[in-house]
Design a protein that fits this description.
The chain is α/β, with parallel strands linked by helices. The protein is built from nine helices and eight strands. The strands form two sheets. It has a six-stranded mixed β-sheet. A two-stranded antiparallel ribbon has the order 7-8. Helix 7 runs antiparallel to helix 8. The chain is globular, with a radius of gyration of 19 Å. The model has no long low-confidence stretch (mean pLDDT about 95).
């Protein structure tokens, strides 16, 4: 059974015939902020929103505790990950930063995302948290086809209609390049790839290109350390959390497991007696 809603895991753990799979993943959750559009073109606003969201409460409320806070733009299990720190919950600091940026009374905005239950729960949580610092958020859940069109049917950055996107990303290659380049590289603006924050920094670009241009692990580690540090400093997203992979299966099943990218692996001797 996949996915298993996080709130159901506890009851499944008591079943004599079912094994619960609960392991860290490489799927990150974040809110991409349109870095080219007011008010999110001001890094003080983006920083304020990170302080305005209680990441531990996000994990508890949205994922029933079955997730981990983001402490880097990349998940911990991805190669060349380096911990960057945290933006602790501090609504007073968030309000001060908003006032410094010229928004003492906050502002109104729209948060767009998918229409599934877990995503809507996450968006509503962010909405409630930002309301406490004066930011009024309209939640816009969209059917998958409509959302995809709205994200990628954009030829120029100024035509983008999404200003806040509740998103997730898993590096299907298991490599740091695909963990960063599709969402954080200037040449990855839609419709090419998925840089839906419209984030651009030459330091980050150079580091991503450096990491892609070599197979030397030492050089790659240095490059991705630079990229992670710069992105963390620039706060193009509200950094939220890293999912756990949650599945349940019959205790009769052997030889099957779930990879960190949420794909299933079946060994040659997989069997259901």
């Amino acid at each position: 059974i996949f996915p298993v809603p996080p709130e159901m895991i506890k009851s499944l753990e008591n079943s004599p015939t079912i094994t619960v799979f609960d392991e860290p993943s490489i799927l990150i959750r974040y809110v991409a902020l349109n870095n080219l559009r007011k008010p999110f073109n001001d890094p003080r606003v983006r920083l304020a929103l990170n302080y305005a969201v209680d990441k531990q409460a996000f994990i508890k409320v949205v994922f029933s505790g079955r997730a981990d806070p983001m402490d880097s733009p990349m998940p911990q299990l991805l190669g060349f990950y380096q911990k960057q720190g945290s933006y602790p919950y501090d609504p007073a600091k968030a309000r001060a930063l908003l006032a410094e940026a010229g928004y003492p009374n906050g502002f109104e905005t729209t948060l767009t995302g998918a229409s599934n239950t877990l995503t809507q729960r996450g968006m509503q949580f962010v909405q409630q948290q930002l309301a406490a610092v004066g930011v009024s958020v309209k939640v816009e859940p969209l059917e998958a086809g409509v959302l995809t069109a709205k994200m990628f049917n954009v030829q120029k950055p100024e035509d983008a209609s999404i200003v806040m996107l509740y998103g997730g990303w898993s590096s299907s290659t298991g490599d740091a390049d695909w963990g960063m380049r599709p969402m954080l590289y200037t040449k990855a603006f839609p419709p090419v790839l998925s840089n839906l924050a419209w984030y651009s920094n030459p330091t980050t670009d150079a580091a991503i290109e450096e990491g892609l241009s070599t197979t030397d692990p030492t050089k790659r580690a240095t490059a991705y350390a630079k990229a992670q540090a710069q992105v963390w400093k620039d706060v193009p997203w509200i950094f939220l959390g890293v999912d756990h992979n949650l599945a349940a299966y019959s205790k009769k099943l052997t030889g099957a497991f779930m990879r960190p990218d949420q794909q299933f692996h079946l060994t040659a001797d997989a069997d259901l007696n």
